[in-house]
Amino acid sequence: RLPPAWAKHLKTRPAAKAIPPKAAPPKARPQASPPRNQADDMLLRQALELQKAERLPEAEELCLKVLARTPNHPLAFYILGTLGVGYDDEKALRYFARAVAEEPRNPYYHLSLGETYLKLSEFTPAIRHIQQALALKPDLVEALCALGDAYNSFDKGEMALPLFEKALKIDRDHPQARIGLPEALASLGRMDEAAAHLKEAIARRIALPTAFNALVRTRKYTEEPPELAAILTELQDPGQVPEGAAALHHAAGKVLNDLRRYKEAMDHFKQGNQAGGQKFDIGSYRRWVDATIETFTPELVVSMAAYGNPSEVPVLIVGMPRSGTTLTEQICASHPDVHGAGELSKLGRIANGIGLRGSSETNLGKSVATITSQLTKTLAAEHLAYLRERAPAALRIVDKMPHNFELIGLVGILFPNARIIHCRRDAIDNCISCFVLQFNEAHNYSADLETLGLYYREYDRLMRHWRKVLPGRIFENRYETLIENQEEQSHRLIDYLGLPWDEACLRFFDRTGSVNTYSNWQVRQPIYKSSVKRWKNYESEIRPLIDALGDLAET
């Protein structure tokens, strides 16, 4: 957050998921602002104007010019941090940290540093810096909401509630608080209360697309609700931004799907995905999969795993999104010796740091060559400490980030005794379930039916390779098998984890605590079979997907 004189110039970047825009920064000036040089002020103001125009390299150049003249200028560091947000979060983190070091009593700097840590799933430093912002400025609504978001992300909805409630007492129309409070309630299974708050936000016309999209996910509709007409009316607004239109189309599609008006529902899902204008380079991804298969041979992984950490604590649940990963995690985490940590981005950050992800032109062989025996030990120890932070006494800690399926070779090297559960589902059902949700831009392969089918084929090809690399090590958890015989498959899962059976695993839907996922309504229901062969409802609308899947489509 910038001092008010600067804040109005800041461009708000589109969020990674549909969230309400943040309220205007508070009017109170942050404490302990250093005296400023007028020429520096002018350059930094120009930098903000350039950022607003998305001319980021030029904005960065001006900030660096200020730093060349006035070393360690905290505001220059801070603006450089804002330039990285959403583009290079690691870089943003470094600059925000330098701003905090230079001006430690500025609550806005602490807040931005904490929010960036939160984006990177580093919950402990995120919470520490956001709490520091609140210690410096207890009525800072954005900090109250950010701390609430942190607790929501950490599956601690019960700790988020009072923060959002306090924020709303200070600013009853703050979008982040208006959406954050019902999100926390929904994560705790308090769907009726969440719906009431969302209806109030809609009545006050606050963050409408997000509020409608969240509201329709608090229940399953058996008759047409008044919200459907309201959503369709909002879609007529010519001023609707693409992100808002996408959220509204997905909300309408969800209601229509509940009502079994499948053709209308699919029309809205298609329009919602098109509204984002996202494109995915399937050719580049295919080349990256080629390189990964070529680099991570069984021989390489076995030889490098000799330096890995022998801990049996890490458990990964991987697969395509919407393949039953949340259900599987809930069953496992119902065991008293297992902690479900949710979707963690840490392994992805490790991979990015080494250069294992990126463009297809990345030389994976060279990247893997940098993983020395000492680096292997260091990375594994750091990651284990990161997991332990969440549950110091648990015998197994589950990371259910689905796309860790890309990183199984790295996991095999760092943790040769890690357990990997691969969730698999009918290919067409799985793809349709992805297509009908408003995913963030990291999943833009799911915005087009043909691309989605081709992407699924690459995922399948990579998983077949990992089974050769780690023979007998990956537990194949078929969604349909779990639905058909929950008890038998649950026994197999717990046995694979090397733990004694516990009856609590059959009553996963009774678990207390919060669940922060698209599935937080479904996962609190007993096993149901309505999602098996769901794609048949859309058969005439999804030909490009079925054709792209080819022999993987079980028709």
Structure in words:
By secondary structure, the protein is mostly helical. It folds into 2 domains: about 1-135, Serine Threonine Protein Phosphatase 5, Tetratricopeptide repeat; about 280-550, P-loop containing nucleotide triphosphate hydrolases (Rossmann fold, 3-Layer(aba) Sandwich), CATH 3.40.50. Helix content is about 55%, strand content about 5%. The chain has helices at about 5, 40-50, 55-70, 75-85, 90-100, 105-120, 125-135, 140-155, 155-170, 175-185, 190-205, 210-215, 225-235, 240-260, 260-275, 280-295, 300-305, 325-335, 345-355, 365-370, 375-390, 410-415, 425-435, 450-470, 480-485, 485-495, 545-550; strands spanning about 315-320, 340, 395-400, 420-425, 475-480. Helix 2 packs antiparallel against helix 3 (about 55-70), helix 13 (about 225-235) packs antiparallel against helix 14 and helix 14 (about 240-260) runs antiparallel to helix 15. The protein is globular, with a radius of gyration of 24 Å. The model is unreliable at about 1-35 (pLDDT under 50).
What is the structure about, briefly put?
With 555 residues, the protein is mostly helical. It has 2 domains: 1-137, Serine Threonine Protein Phosphatase 5, Tetratricopeptide repeat; 282-550, Rossmann fold, CATH 3.40.50.300. Helices cover 56% and strands 4% of the residues.
